[in-house]
């Protein structure tokens, strides 16, 4: 048997172009869900047809589970297999995925599986469908009291309160639009006048709620990563700072954060593989530490991490 690797070089996945990393820890394994940038572009735009899954027990050696869900599995969608996130509840796994609805705008699909590595089966209808283009980049979190939330959106941050079945939401509350203020998301150059752009990542740590997102600084054309915090799951949000700068990246970025076996990791994407570009991206990871007050210093892009 060959000796296990002790160091993981970025990008993590080198045989295909991947983006929008979404880690999920289940048992002694970290599962990483990604989008897939096709080699050949259609109309010189993001060409994305399926979602992939990779897993690791040591952050260095990765198992490729291949395609776990695709546009072919969603009868009502025809394009744009964009940034997903997965969560487990009551022994089932739910994969939330933005797609382009036939004869419509963007909407959020849900795939369900008995296995974290899929395959996933579509509900047959969208979970969120406002008929506009804001319904992308879902991030899901189940709070300590069992209440689940799904945030999403570009250029606005919105959320729904999920029911326990994870495939419907509280329609009395409906779709809530988060106030897009500079206090919450800093001044920036995106459509709301704040830095918030897209790709939210919602989680809780030591009683503090975090919203990490892809952001546009003032007069900046490429995305950096930033974060805000709150004492409650629905805000109000307070801007925390820049998590990762745009230098060395591509037009987009997408955060995914997980604590795994005593270490904290930020997943992101760049264009570092040969042939890389804003439409051919590659998933990377960096280890980081929280400050005592829960704040996070700016994390540099890195060459790789060690085995745990």
Write the layout of secondary structure elements.
Elements: E1 7-9, E2 17-26, E3 29-37, E4 50-56, E5 62-70, E6 77-79, E7 85-89, E8 92-101, E9 106-113, E10 121-122, E11 139-142, E12 148-152, E13 158-162, E14 176-177, H1 182-185, E15 196-205, E16 208-215, E17 224-230, E18 238-244, E19 256-260, E20 263-270, E21 282-288, E22 304-306
Antiparallel strand pairs: 1-22, 2-3, 3-4, 4-5, 6-8, 7-8, 8-9, 9-10, 11-12, 12-13, 13-14, 15-16, 16-17, 17-18, 19-20, 20-21
Query: What proportion of the residues form beta strands (DSSP E)?
Result: 35-45%
The strand count comes to: 22
Please tell me what the overall shape is: globular
Largest sheet: 5 strands, antiparallel
Integer average pLDDT:
97
What's the gyration radius in Å? 18 Å
End-to-end Cα distance: 19 Å
The helix/strand series, from N terminus to C terminus, equals EEEEEEEEEEEEEEHEEEEEEEE
Category from helices, strands and their pairing:
mainly beta
Helix content: under 10%
Low-confidence stretches: none
Q: How many helical elements?
A: 1
Give the oligomeric state. single chain
Task: Report on the architecture of this protein.
The chain has 308 residues and is mainly beta. Helix content is 1%, strand content 44%. The chain has one helix at residues 182-185; strands at 7-9, 17-26, 29-37, 50-56, 62-70, 77-79, 85-89, 92-101, 106-113, 121-122, 139-142, 148-152, 158-162, 176-177, 196-205, 208-215, 224-230, 238-244, 256-260, 263-270, 282-288, 304-306. Strands 6, 7, 8, 9 and 10 form a five-stranded antiparallel sheet that branches. Strands 2-3-4-5 form a four-stranded antiparallel sheet, with no helix packed on it. Strand 9 (106-113) and strand 10 form a beta hairpin. The mean pLDDT is 97.
